[in-house]
Every structure is written in C-alpha cells, then in structure tokens.
Design goal:
Helix content is about 40%, strand content about 15%. It is α/β, with parallel strands linked by helices. It is globular and about 70 Å long.
C-alpha cells in the first residue's frame, strides 16, 4: 500500500485557470518548506477527484512543476518533491504590500504600557458606537487633515483598516449585480470584494495618467448596465504606480457628475501632505467616498482606517458598518489614540518615508531599466511586461525563491496584450531585498521586452 501524501490539496486564488491555480499552490508550499524534499504528492486521479478538476489538469500541472525542477516522477512509485531544503533557500516575499518596519519593540512596549496605565478603562468593557467614539473620529480627522484632506469628523467613520472601509463603501453605493468601473489592473482585495458582493467589474484602460477617462465616458454612453460607482487609486495606483494628473481628476469628476456616479477614492499610499495633487474627495466631496488607513502607512498589524462620506450617505454607511463589524477593536483605537497624541505616528511615518526612499533608490539602481518610473517613491513598483512574458517571469521568480504578486490577482481583463509584475519592496530585510532584486534583474534580462511602453493596459 502506498504511503499517503502529506499535502493538503488546495487551489490558489491568485491565478485564473485550474492548472495555474494548482501549480501556484504546490509551488508555494514546496518553496516555503511546508512540503519537504522527498514528500509524496497525491496520485493524479485522487487529486483530481478531491479538487473537482480534470485529470488532464493535474497531469499538466505536475508536468509544469517537473520542468521547473520542483517535483520529480519516479516510475511505478509516483510524484515526489524534488527541491531539497538543504539548499538553504529562503523564500523572499515581494508580494505583500506592507510599509518598511519602523516600529521598534521598545516603542510598542511603551505604547501598551501607557494604555495599561490609563485611569479610565471603560472603553474596553462596553460596546463603542458603530462609527467610533467621537474623540477617535476627531483624531482620525486630524490625521486626514495632515494629509491635506479637509475632514469633518461627523462625516467620518472608523473602520478595521482600508479593506473594511472599502467593503463598507461598496455596500453603501453598489447594488448586487451592479457595475463597478475600475482600472484595468487594480487592487486584488477590491476584486475579491466585488466577487463577494456580486458586482460586475469593468476594467478601464490606463495610460500614463491612470484611468483613461475618455474610454470610461464612451463606455457609459454606450452601455445600459446597472451602474454603481467608479473605484480609483489616483496616487501610486496599485499595481501600476500611475499618478493621476489634476486635469484627469477633474475630468473624472465631470464624467461621474454627468452620469450620477459616485467615486470611491483609495488614497492609502499617501504618506505625506507634500504632494501637490489634491485628493478627488477634496475636489468633489459631495460624490466621493474617501478611504485611508493607518495600517498601510504605519504598521500593517494596526487594523484601523477611516471612510469619509458625502453627508447624504452617512446613515446608510453606518448601517453597513454595523452589519459587518459592530465596532472597531478598542485596543486598536487606543493604540491609534496613543500614537497620534504622543507623536509616535509622526515619528514612524517619517522613518517609513526615509526608508521607502532608500529602498526605491536601491531598486532603481539595480532594476531601473526594467521598471516603470512614476516619479514618486513608493514601497511597491511596477515591472511592465508583454503578456507572453508575465507567467514565465512569475514562475522563474518563484523557482528562484522569490514570491512576487501574482499577475492574475490584479487583472480585471486577462486578455489585455500588456501586463506586468508588481514588486513590493517594503517587507523584506534590506539584504534580502538587494539579493532578490539582483535575481529579478537576471530574469527580466532573459525575457522578451514589450514592443513599447505598456499603455494602454
């Protein structure tokens, strides 16, 4: 009787076809060490039955993994993991878009100690208002003002991070089966939320200034779809790092007003007010739902964000928030309060800004000829590639122990000729990042370059 495989069958959610989903799931578990060298893989038919996929799909996926040297076939015995952990290979994760670590354990200890010494601990023993305590909303409003976004705290609700804010925003202005217009390549979390809420995504091509509003206008004129809203990240768009010009922002507002559409503005990559471009919500507060978060610019484990709303949407949004979370964790709110009052937030933000510049300059010194240059430092970068080069690049990076953002996870229109890879440079240690960038430069140099710059996408 054959030994059972230790692998727990699964399909990755970051790919499109069943073959790619299986390849990615197995490759991740092999390279992370979850599947050890010599471990048996499930028999073809058993795996197909378990996952509900075709036998040919499993055969094709195993073949791809074997070509990449991750598995080997032993005649009469089955398929086994071929990658030995003795290679000492550590997976360097460039797929998670987090800021560089800037909070020391000493600072965190001091914060928690200060909270523990508070004389009034009632907030930890009772439910908070769904939108958050007024003092916390005032503090968040002050932070938004620091970023150049004039904010009335009475139109602001506290959320458990930007993802939660997006969920509330979409639930507030979008009906099931409505159409949400987004950039052709967009934030993967937004794509997942849209599927959950049964929204139809329509990807609008981008040029050097982000979403091509002229294309959006033509689509709206020609379509009878049940329209819901437009979602954009005008500053350092993820994944492409595009920055929308002031003229383009005003043009988007014009088109949305003409078509009675709300705009959901994701502004989580704005570290500082030292950016001349105003938020769309500042230009059109009556039709814009504005999302920002302390998680993305201070610390990813601090799950706290804010959603600034047009006055007429506030009550509905508060109901949506109550239905999804009841309230934000009081501990997170207390940490936010402490950091904003004692200066920790300013100190950490300043440190992250400096470290982001250092990493950005390092990346361009190594990979600059291959990267799209937005002109503004960020902790995610865009490596444009022709469609036929994207998957080979992704697989080659993974085989080399470097995990990058799966292109399929950010693509609204997978048939577009042009594509690319997002590289998140905020998470790894600087030495790991340097090593990964050198490896990626070799991989990029071996692949066919796109015929021209990657517009439209």
């Amino acid at each position: 009787m054959r030994e059972r495989s230790p692998w727990q069958p699964r399909l990755s959610s970051n790919a499109t076809s069943p073959t790619e989903q299986l390849v990615e799931a197995l490759a991740e578990d092999i390279l992370s060490g979850s599947l050890q060298h010599g471990a048996r893989l499930p028999a073809h038919r058993n795996l197909a039955d378990t996952l509900g996929i075709g036998l040919g799909t499993v055969t094709k996926a195993y073949g791809i993994l074997e070509k990449r040297g991750l598995v080997r076939s032993v005649k009469g015995s089955g398929m086994f993991v071929a990658l030995a952990n003795s290679r000492g290979q550590t997976v360097i994760d460039l797929s998670q878009n987090t800021p560089p670590a800037a909070l020391s354990s000493r600072s965190l200890s001091a914060t928690l100690s200060a909270i523990a010494r508070r004389p009034d601990m009632d907030m930890f023993n009772t439910y908070a208002p769904a939108a958050g305590h007024d003092e916390h909303r005032r503090l968040m409003a002050r932070w938004f003002n620091r970023l150049g976004m004039p904010t009335d705290y009475r139109q602001l609700i506290i959320t458990s991070g930007a993802q939660h804010a997006l969920s509330v925003a979409l639930s507030t202005v979008c009906e099931p089966f409505g159409t949400l217009y987004v950039e052709a390549q967009t934030y993967s979390g937004l794509i997942q939320l849209s599927r959950l809420l049964k929204l139809k995504l329509v990807g609008i091509p981008m040029d050097d200034e982000g979403m091509d509003v002229s294309v959006l206008e033509k689509m709206l004129d020609a379509s009878d779809d049940k329209r819901s809203a437009v979602y954009v990240t005008p500053l350092l768009q993820s994944p492409s790092t595009r920055i929308m010009s002031l003229a383009r922002r005003k043009d988007l507002i014009r088109v949305c007003r003409a078509n009675a559409l709300f705009i959901i503005e994701d502004d989580v990559y704005r570290l500082t007010r030292n950016i001349e471009l105003p938020q769309i919500a500042r230009l059109a507060p009556d039709i814009t739902l504005y999302v920002n978060s302390l998680s993305k610019i201070l610390n990813p484990t601090l799950r706290i964000g804010g959603l600034l709303l047009p006055e007429q949407l506030y009550s509905r949004a508060e109901s949506m928030l109550r239905a999804t979370a009841m309230m934000v964790s009081p501990i997170s709110c207390a940490i936010m309060e402490q950091w904003l009052l004692d200066g920790t937030a300013e100190t950490v933000t300043s440190a992250i800004e400096h470290e982001t510049v250092r990493r950005y300059e390092l990346a361009f010194s190594i990979l600059g000829e291959h990267l799209y240059r937005s002109g503004h430092p960020s902790f995610h970068l865009w490596l444009p590639l022709a469609r036929e080069s994207v998957q080979p690049f992704y697989e080659a990076a993974l085989a080399a122990g470097i995990k990058v953002t799966s292109p399929a996870s950010t693509e609204v229109n997978p048939l577009s000729e042009q594509s690319g890879i997002r590289l998140c440079i905020g998470g790894p240690e600087i030495e790991q990042l340097h090593r990964a960038l050198l490896t990626l430069k070799e991989i990029a140099g071996q692949l066919k370059r796109p015929r021209a710059q990657t517009f439209p996408v």
